[in-house]
Specification:
mainly alpha; two-stranded antiparallel sheet; 4 helices; 2 strands; elongated
Length: 116
């Protein structure tokens, strides 16, 4: 069995990258450990999630700016799908497909998976 150290002696989460190998027989002697994140204050957990969300949106936006033409095309598909209901020239399934394809396009471009 290979174990990764994820907590310190005080029970706080750590990122050491330290790996240990133990036999299954030795593993049976181990005590179950509490979740190292269980002692994290609620405010700190919320702040961490908000910060992670900010950086994710920022990276997403930078990917869209890096590829303006594909992002514009995908965004246009979404807009046509949404506004097309008011124009009433395209059937509902086509408008839904445009929204879906445009949203997926934006997701792919924003994820950085689309290479030039």
């Amino acid at each position: 069995m290979t174990l990764l150290r994820v907590g310190d002696a005080d029970g706080r989460r750590v990122n050491t990258g330290e790996l240990e190998r133990v036999s299954e027989a030795d593993l049976e002697a181990f005590e179950s450990a509490a979740n190292p994140d269980g002692n994290r204050p609620f405010g700190a957990a919320v702040a961490s999630k908000l910060e992670m969300g900010y950086w994710s949106l920022r990276a997403f936006g930078q990917q869209l700016v890096t590829r303006p033409l594909p992002a514009a095309v995908a965004g246009l598909l979404v807009v046509v799908g949404v506004v097309g209901e008011q124009i009433d020239t395209l059937p509902e399934p086509v408008l839904s497909a445009l929204i879906l394809v445009g949203a997926l396009g934006l997701a792919v471009i924003g994820s950085g998976r689309l290479r030039s």
